[in-house]
Structure formats: C-alpha cells, structure tokens
Design a protein that fits this description.
By secondary structure, the protein is α/β, with parallel strands linked by helices. The protein folds into 2 domains: 189 residues, Rossmann fold (3-Layer(aba) Sandwich), CATH 3.40.50.620; 102 residues, GMP Synthetase, Chain A, domain 3 (2-Layer Sandwich). It is 41% helix and 20% strand. The protein has 11 helices and 9 strands. α1 packs across α2, α2 packs across α8 and α10 packs antiparallel against α11. The chain binds xanthosine-5'-monophosphate. Xanthosine-5'-monophosphate (XMP) binds next to loops. Homodimer. It catalyses: XMP + L-glutamine + ATP + H2O = GMP + L-glutamate + AMP + diphosphate + 2 H(+). Keywords: ATP-binding, Glutamine amidotransferase, GMP biosynthesis, Ligase, Nucleotide-binding, Purine biosynthesis. Catalyzes the synthesis of GMP from XMP.
C-alpha cells in the first residue's frame, strides 16, 4: 500500500543503502524541494548530512533567519550558512540586463557552493531536490523550480571538479507528492505550500541594477503584501504573488513639500502551469489597504501600482 508514510520509509531505506556511513552535502535554499530533501535525509542519516545554505542577500524578508531557525535550531540539522550578500552585490554592480543578472547570480552561487563543499572533504555524496518534472524537462530553460543547482542551471549545472555521487530521493515524485511528504515529515504547511520563488531571487524583481538599498525596500513591501494576503485568506487563492521594485522616482506631496521616492508594483497571478496566467482580481479594498501600508510604513516608497497584465504576453516576473 502506497501511503505517504510508506513512501518515506522506503526512501529512507534506499538512501541508507545508497550512502552507507558516508557523508552527504545538500544545498539548502529554503524552497520546497530542498527543504523536503533535508528533512528526509536528516531522518534517514542524521548527522551524516551537512546542508550548505547560501544567503545571497537576494532572499525575502528574514528568509535566511527563518531557514536557520527551522532547520538548524528546530530540527537539529547541521547547516552551514554562508553570508554572501556582499559578494553577490559586488558581482552585480553595473549589471542591468536580466539574463546577464541571472548568469552572474547563478555563477556566483555555483562558485560559493563549490568553495563550501570543497571544505567538506569527507563528503562523498551530493543530495539534490530534483523532482520528476525536472527529470523530464532536464536541460530546459527557466522553470518555477526553486532548488539550488537546478534553479541555477542557466549557467550549466554541477561544477566540473565536484566528484560526488548524486542522491536524488525525490526523482520519481511530482510536486504535490513532495508537498504531502514534507508535511508528513513535519515541515510547516506554510513553508511547504509557499508560492514559487525564482532561483535568482530579488535579483530579477529589482528592475535594472541591483542595489542593497533597493533590495531592502523591496523586502519590506513584499512582506507587507504577503502578510496581508495571508491575513485575508487570499494567499492560497493566488498561485504566485510578490512585489517588484521600480528604480524610478515619482512625486509625492507631503505636509512639508514634494518628495521624490521609488515605485513598487504588486504582481499576483492565478495559474495552473505557470505557462499562462491570469492576473488575480484582488478586491479593491484589499489593494487599497496594502498600498496604504506600503506607503505609510516604508520610507522611500511613494507610489504603489498593481500589475493587470496577463501571460502571455506579460511574463509572471518582470524580468
Ligand atoms: P515567467 O516570469 O517566465 O515565470 O512567467 C514563470 C515561473 O518561473 C519562475 N521563474 C524562474 N525560476 N529561475 C527560476 O528558478 C529563474 O530565472 C526564473 N525566472 C522565472 C517565475 O517565478 C514563475 O514561477
């Protein structure tokens, strides 16, 4: 009988047989797939697992701390957090082309992951959150997949010199099955059912050149939007929702004069497959509330717009 509990047990046995007493490295992104692999491997092999979590500085509001709180503190998984914000920002200086940004971010990510795993000299295996659709798609273009190596495959996948065997326990599973498994393994449903987040992160949600100032403003706006969606029971009714930072200044009149501050766009879509999407018809009162909160609470943003473009032709991300 194929219950989720059985699938988990079966996977645990297979992993134990595959790796024996060897050490395993996993790139943990905070996305669903790598999180489920972390939970599964932790259960299967405990301390033989070391996760490497690269904090790119392009993650969402407090995401890095949340990943650490969840895995390191709460579950007792060995996680190495690499604070690489400065390196990513430096590498992105002056880069404005979206595909170039993806390459820079993906390349830097691979370099850092490679450096960290080279330090773990005793590791013999590399675990990945490859799921069945990834296997079929293999070397396709960008997808909604959020796990590490795969999501940065824009630059060509695994580092050459990484002579590690692959552990891919989710290879035969669909996303829905991975989610059910995650919940069964004790991961919080809010994490397991989180909207997809692109590998290059906020790097492609800040139009043009990426700067820390922009990323910090964007994180705050995005957090308000998501928090309100959850509060109003709208989060699970949208497939993906986020804020986009527009590096243009627009005028705002305040008591003491005119202020020129940045603009944020809100994007929310409903979709089955992410190939086509309809903009979410969120209630006006809700949009009004989010807009007021963003403008009142975030110094530096003076205007909020809502994206009412369908895909095609407008892609879900702005870049
Ligand atoms: P678009 O913007 O192409 O997005 O309509 C479709 C889905 O793919 C995600 N996306 C990415 N995911 N790396 C990723 O891992 C990327 O470079 C990337 N670009 C877009 C997007 O968030 C949406 O879910």
């Amino acid at each position: 009988l194929w219950t989720t509990a059985n699938i988990i047990e079966d996977n645990i046995q297979k992993v134990r047989e595959q790796v024996g007493s060897d050490e395993v490295i996993l790139g943990l992104s905070g996305g669903v797939d790598s999180s489920v692999v972390a939970a599964l491997l932790h259960k299967a092999i405990g301390d033989q697992l070391t996760c490497v979590f690269v904090d790119t500085g392009l993650l969402r509001y407090r995401e890095g701390d949340q990943v650490m709180a969840m895995f390191a503190e709460h579950m007792g998984v060995k996680v190495i957090r690499v604070d690489a914000e400065a390196r990513f920002l430096t590498a992105l200086e002056g880069v404005t082309d979206p595909e170039k940004k993806r390459k820079v971010i993906g390349g830097m990510f691979i370099d850092i992951f490679d450096e960290e795993s080279a330090k773990l000299t005793s590791a013999k295996w590399l675990a990945q959150g490859t799921i069945y659709p990834d296997v079929i798609e293999s070397a396709g273009a960008k997808t909604g997949k959020a796990h590490l190596i795969k999501s940065h495959h824009n630059v060509g996948g695994l580092p050459e010199n990484m002579k590690l065997g692959l552990v891919e326990p989710l290879r035969e599973l669909f996303k829905d099955e991975v989610r059910v498994m995650g919940v069964e393994l004790g991961l919080p449903p809010e994490m397991v059912y989180r909207h997809p987040f692109p590998g290059p992160g906020l790097g492609v949600r800040i139009l043009g050149e990426v700067k820390k100032e922009y990323a910090d403003l964007l994180r705050l706006a995005d957090h308000i939007f998501i928090e309100e969606l959850r509060k109003h029971d709208l989060y699970d009714k949208t497939s993906q929702a986020f804020a986009v930072f527009l590096p243009v200044k627009s005028v705002g009149v305040t008591g003491d004069g005119r202020r020129y501050d940045y603009v944020v766009a809100l994007r929310a879509v409903e979709t089955i497959d992410f190939m086509t999407a309809r903009w979410a018809h969120l209630p006006y009162d809700f949009l009004d509330l989010v807009s007021r909160r963003v403008i009142n609470e975030i110094k530096g943003i003076s205007r909020v717009v809502y994206d009412i473009s369908g895909k095609p032709p407008a892609t879900i991300e702005w870049e």
